[in-house]
């Protein structure tokens, strides 16, 4: 009888030990974002991991309906191939309310423009992105050997950079040569202008506009000066001309 009780005690102890081991084993981990985005998560950045539910292709953008936990929402990225069911990770996003896609003839109640996602097989090229995305650092842009005089009533690019505070929130005329353009990013064209002048070490001015121009064009823009503009998703500018209109020569 004593032998039977001893054996029973041993079996019970082994069973309890086995259960305790199972409880101490880590639970199955949820899908983790790629390593280069996990650093953002550790830094407290707004990191998202979601599953693609639906894909809509337009001329310049790919629109993705994604599911993150119990939440469904739409994001837009520069055009690429990606299939439903793919798990992607991205940081932040520029929120746009009632955004109308003319290509799709559809209005999104809420849409997030995301500059980069991980998990797809075809990341956007540098040419598709505005050159002043802060997470990539300052772009390497050469100063052109040109000399363009300001239009009557206008200012030079050098004057703007040298006295930026004086022009904050003001509408100005700027004339220059188009050195670079990124079209249809976040619903606008991103134009880089130079006129041969510089101020405070800066000589290349970014202008956002709906108007069409080409590299090499000498154009005059009228637009509002904004300082320290952060669009989110990495689009940050110390000086930018927004909602600019091209003035006929």
Question: Which outline best applies?
Answer: elongated
Spatial order of the strands forming the largest sheet: 5-6-3-2-1-4-7
Helix run count? 4
> What do the pLDDT scores average to?
78
Parts with pLDDT < 50 across at least 5 consecutive residues:
1-6, 16-44, 121-139
**Proper CATH architecture of the largest domain:** Beta Barrel
Structural class: alpha+beta
Distance between the termini: 109 Å
Helix content: 10-25%
Protein model, in words:
With 249 residues, the chain is of the alpha+beta class. It has two domains: 76 residues, OB fold (Dihydrolipoamide Acetyltransferase, E2P) (Beta Barrel); 114 residues, Beta Barrel (OB fold (Dihydrolipoamide Acetyltransferase, E2P)), CATH 2.40.50.140. The chain is 16% helix and 42% strand. It is built from four helices and twelve strands; from the N terminus they run ααβββββββααβββββ. The strands form two sheets. Strands 5-6-3-2-1-4-7 form a seven-stranded mixed beta sheet. Strands 8-9-10-12-11 form a five-stranded mixed β-barrel. Strand 8 and strand 9 form a beta hairpin. The protein is elongated, with a radius of gyration of 27 Å.
Provide a short characterization of the protein structure:
The chain is an alpha+beta fold.
Could you give the topology of this structure?
Elements: H1 2-24, H2 35-42, E1 47-57, E2 61-68, E3 71-78, E4 87-91, E5 94-101, E6 106-113, E7 117-118, H3 157-162, H4 164-167, E8 171-185, E9 188-194, E10 205-209, E11 218-232, E12 235-247
Parallel strand pairs: 3-6, 10-12
Antiparallel strand pairs: 1-2, 1-4, 2-3, 4-7, 5-6, 8-9, 8-11, 9-10, 11-12
């Amino acid at each position: 009888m004593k032998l039977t009780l001893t054996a029973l005690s041993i079996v019970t102890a082994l069973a309890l030990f086995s259960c305790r081991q199972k409880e101490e084993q880590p639970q199955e981990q949820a899908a983790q974002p790629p390593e280069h985005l996990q650093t953002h998560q550790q830094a407290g950045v707004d990191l998202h991991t979601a599953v693609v539910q639906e894909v809509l292709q337009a001329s310049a953008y790919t629109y993705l309906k994604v599911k993150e936990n119990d939440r469904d929402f739409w994001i837009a990225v520069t055009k690429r191939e990606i299939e439903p069911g793919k798990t992607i990770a991205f940081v932040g996003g520029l929120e746009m309310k009632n955004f109308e896609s003319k290509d799709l003839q559809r209005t999104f109640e809420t849409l997030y423009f995301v500059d980069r996602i991980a998990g797809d097989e075809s990341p956007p090229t540098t040419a598709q992105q505005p050159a002043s995305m802060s997470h990539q650092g300052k772009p390497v842009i050469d100063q052109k050997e040109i000399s363009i005089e300001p239009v009557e009533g206008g200012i030079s690019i050098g004057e703007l950079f040298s006295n930026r505070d004086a022009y904050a929130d003001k509408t100005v005329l700027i004339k220059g040569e188009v050195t670079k353009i990124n079209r249809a990013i976040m619903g606008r064209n991103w134009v880089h202008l130079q006129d041969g002048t510089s101020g405070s070490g800066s000589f290349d001015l970014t202008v956002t506009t709906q108007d069409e121009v080409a590299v090499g064009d000498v154009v005059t823009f009228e637009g509002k000066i904004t300082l320290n503009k952060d669009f989110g998703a990495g689009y940050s500018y110390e000086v930018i001309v927004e909602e600019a209109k091209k003035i006929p020569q």
